[in-house]
Specification:
By secondary structure, the protein is mainly α. The chain has a two-stranded antiparallel ribbon with strand order 1-2. Helix 3 packs across helix 4.
Length: 140
Protein backbone atom coordinates (compact mmCIF):
# COMPACT_ATOMS: atom_id res chain seq x y z
CA UNK A 1 0.00 0.00 0.00
CA UNK A 2 0.90 3.63 -0.22
CA UNK A 3 2.28 5.73 2.62
CA UNK A 4 -1.08 7.49 3.02
CA UNK A 5 -2.85 4.14 3.28
CA UNK A 6 -0.34 2.89 5.86
CA UNK A 7 -0.70 6.07 7.95
CA UNK A 8 -4.50 5.81 7.78
CA UNK A 9 -4.36 2.17 8.91
CA UNK A 10 -2.11 3.03 11.86
CA UNK A 11 -4.30 5.98 12.83
CA UNK A 12 -7.48 3.90 12.76
CA UNK A 13 -5.87 1.20 14.89
CA UNK A 14 -4.60 3.82 17.34
CA UNK A 15 -8.14 5.20 17.68
CA UNK A 16 -9.45 1.68 18.29
CA UNK A 17 -6.78 1.11 20.97
CA UNK A 18 -7.71 4.38 22.67
CA UNK A 19 -11.38 3.38 22.66
CA UNK A 20 -10.57 0.00 24.21
CA UNK A 21 -8.18 1.30 26.87
CA UNK A 22 -10.90 3.47 28.43
CA UNK A 23 -12.56 0.22 29.60
CA UNK A 24 -9.71 -0.42 32.07
CA UNK A 25 -11.34 1.34 35.07
CA UNK A 26 -14.48 -0.79 34.73
CA UNK A 27 -12.38 -3.96 34.49
CA UNK A 28 -10.41 -2.95 37.57
CA UNK A 29 -13.55 -2.18 39.57
CA UNK A 30 -14.93 -5.68 38.96
CA UNK A 31 -11.76 -7.45 40.13
CA UNK A 32 -11.66 -9.19 43.49
CA UNK A 33 -8.25 -7.60 44.15
CA UNK A 34 -8.10 -4.41 42.02
CA UNK A 35 -4.50 -3.68 43.06
CA UNK A 36 -3.41 -6.83 41.21
CA UNK A 37 -4.47 -5.44 37.81
CA UNK A 38 -0.94 -4.36 36.86
CA UNK A 39 0.58 -7.68 37.87
CA UNK A 40 -2.13 -9.70 36.13
CA UNK A 41 -1.81 -7.62 32.97
CA UNK A 42 1.96 -8.01 32.92
CA UNK A 43 1.66 -11.79 33.22
CA UNK A 44 -1.04 -11.92 30.53
CA UNK A 45 1.03 -9.78 28.16
CA UNK A 46 4.15 -11.89 28.81
CA UNK A 47 2.26 -15.14 28.21
CA UNK A 48 0.73 -13.82 24.99
CA UNK A 49 4.12 -12.62 23.78
CA UNK A 50 5.66 -16.04 24.48
CA UNK A 51 2.88 -17.76 22.51
CA UNK A 52 3.22 -15.36 19.56
CA UNK A 53 7.02 -15.67 19.50
CA UNK A 54 6.76 -19.48 19.66
CA UNK A 55 4.41 -19.52 16.69
CA UNK A 56 6.67 -17.19 14.73
CA UNK A 57 9.74 -19.30 15.60
CA UNK A 58 8.07 -22.51 14.48
CA UNK A 59 7.01 -20.88 11.20
CA UNK A 60 10.52 -19.62 10.55
CA UNK A 61 12.05 -23.00 11.48
CA UNK A 62 9.68 -24.69 9.04
CA UNK A 63 10.14 -22.47 6.01
CA UNK A 64 12.70 -19.80 6.85
CA UNK A 65 12.26 -16.68 4.80
CA UNK A 66 11.21 -18.67 1.73
CA UNK A 67 7.53 -18.83 2.58
CA UNK A 68 4.79 -16.26 2.29
CA UNK A 69 4.42 -13.53 4.91
CA UNK A 70 0.95 -14.89 5.56
CA UNK A 71 0.99 -18.69 5.89
CA UNK A 72 -2.67 -18.85 4.87
CA UNK A 73 -1.64 -17.52 1.42
CA UNK A 74 0.43 -20.68 1.00
CA UNK A 75 -2.55 -23.00 1.45
CA UNK A 76 -3.41 -23.50 -2.20
CA UNK A 77 -4.27 -26.31 -4.58
CA UNK A 78 -4.28 -26.85 -8.33
CA UNK A 79 -0.74 -25.55 -8.73
CA UNK A 80 0.99 -25.82 -12.13
CA UNK A 81 3.87 -28.25 -12.75
CA UNK A 82 7.12 -26.98 -11.27
CA UNK A 83 5.33 -24.42 -9.09
CA UNK A 84 7.96 -24.82 -6.37
CA UNK A 85 10.70 -23.50 -8.69
CA UNK A 86 8.93 -20.22 -9.47
CA UNK A 87 9.95 -16.88 -7.95
CA UNK A 88 6.85 -16.66 -5.72
CA UNK A 89 5.45 -20.20 -5.72
CA UNK A 90 2.94 -19.66 -2.90
CA UNK A 91 0.93 -17.29 -5.11
CA UNK A 92 0.17 -19.94 -7.73
CA UNK A 93 -2.95 -22.07 -7.71
CA UNK A 94 -6.26 -21.41 -6.04
CA UNK A 95 -7.09 -20.90 -2.37
CA UNK A 96 -8.41 -23.98 -0.63
CA UNK A 97 -11.53 -24.13 1.51
CA UNK A 98 -9.28 -24.79 4.51
CA UNK A 99 -7.34 -21.55 3.88
CA UNK A 100 -10.58 -19.59 3.61
CA UNK A 101 -11.81 -21.13 6.86
CA UNK A 102 -8.50 -20.33 8.58
CA UNK A 103 -8.73 -16.74 7.35
CA UNK A 104 -12.21 -16.38 8.88
CA UNK A 105 -11.08 -17.98 12.17
CA UNK A 106 -7.93 -15.83 12.41
CA UNK A 107 -9.84 -12.63 11.65
CA UNK A 108 -12.52 -13.48 14.21
CA UNK A 109 -9.86 -14.32 16.78
CA UNK A 110 -8.08 -11.01 16.20
CA UNK A 111 -11.33 -9.10 16.60
CA UNK A 112 -12.07 -10.89 19.87
CA UNK A 113 -8.65 -10.85 21.53
CA UNK A 114 -7.55 -7.38 20.52
CA UNK A 115 -10.00 -5.85 22.96
CA UNK A 116 -8.25 -7.80 25.73
CA UNK A 117 -4.67 -7.70 24.51
CA UNK A 118 -4.39 -3.93 24.04
CA UNK A 119 -5.47 -2.97 27.59
CA UNK A 120 -3.23 -5.70 29.03
CA UNK A 121 -0.28 -4.33 27.09
CA UNK A 122 -0.96 -0.75 28.18
CA UNK A 123 -1.43 -1.68 31.84
CA UNK A 124 1.66 -3.92 31.78
CA UNK A 125 3.79 -1.13 30.33
CA UNK A 126 2.40 1.40 32.81
CA UNK A 127 3.15 -0.99 35.69
CA UNK A 128 6.68 -1.76 34.53
CA UNK A 129 7.43 1.90 33.82
CA UNK A 130 5.96 2.92 37.18
CA UNK A 131 8.09 0.41 39.05
CA UNK A 132 11.22 1.53 37.16
CA UNK A 133 10.53 5.17 38.00
CA UNK A 134 9.92 4.35 41.67
CA UNK A 135 13.18 2.36 41.91
CA UNK A 136 15.56 4.64 40.08
CA UNK A 137 13.82 7.85 39.35
CA UNK A 138 12.87 9.16 35.94
CA UNK A 139 15.56 8.44 33.31
CA UNK A 140 17.46 11.55 32.23
Amino acid sequence: GSLASDVASIASYAMFCFAVVVTVPSVQSTMQEPKQLGSASTRAYLLSSIVFLSIMGLQYAGSGNLGPENIIEGMRSERPSGWWAMARPWETGTSTMVSKLFAIVVTSNLLLIDATYVPCAVIALETIAGEAVEQGGWPA
